[in-house]
Amino acid sequence: xxxxxxxxxxxxxxxxxxDLALQLGSNVLTSxxxxxxxxxxxxxxxxxxxxxxxxxxxxxQFEVLIDICGVDWPDRENRFEVVYHLLxxxxxxxxRIKLKTTERDPVPSSIPVFPAANWFEREAYDMFGxxxxxxxxxxxxxxxxxxxxxxxRKDFPLTGHVEVRYDEEQKRVxxxxxxxxxxxxxxxxxxxxxxxxxxxxxxxxxxKHAIESN
Length: 214
Hints:
Layout: H1 2-24, E1 28-34, E2 37-42, H2 47-56, E3 64-72, E4 80-88, E5 93-101, E6 107-108, H3 117-128, E7 132-133, E8 162-167, E9 172-177, H4 203-213
Parallel strand pairs: 2-5, 6-7
Antiparallel strand pairs: 1-2, 3-4, 4-5, 8-9
């Protein structure tokens, strides 16, 4: 029974893939079916029209935008992928749309098609630095206003660029460059920045074992 359901679902996704290739033409770059989901790569400039087609076409009816997220591939010419996950409650189908872009080339905002894209696009901008043209309010969403860089990029340092503290003299929050007191961070269960400078409880057992082994 489960096998028959899987075969039927794969057939439906195959028909959808072929229909999109026919209707959208050269705007569809690649498409594949993996793990019961259809993934379609499209041209960046056509994303708004494609999302509108997927929402309004009776064959599709992908009326729910579940998520928009970014993926960072630092070694690629087009460094970023923007991935859109859509759901059709009426047809019980899902589809994944993705496109490629760079740090400088903005992606057309999909807010005119899915207003829920507003915060998703702001998050992708905040975390990856992906730009969205015609977005009405493209500013950081999860990090602070004074935050430097984009924390989900593969080349973003684990320590960050600045640290935040409250200055008693100035009576306000201040930002300062991260200063490490050691070459590598040492997790000592106290401060993540400063090493203890003395053995941790239990270290004497390890030293004793090493002596006995010799």
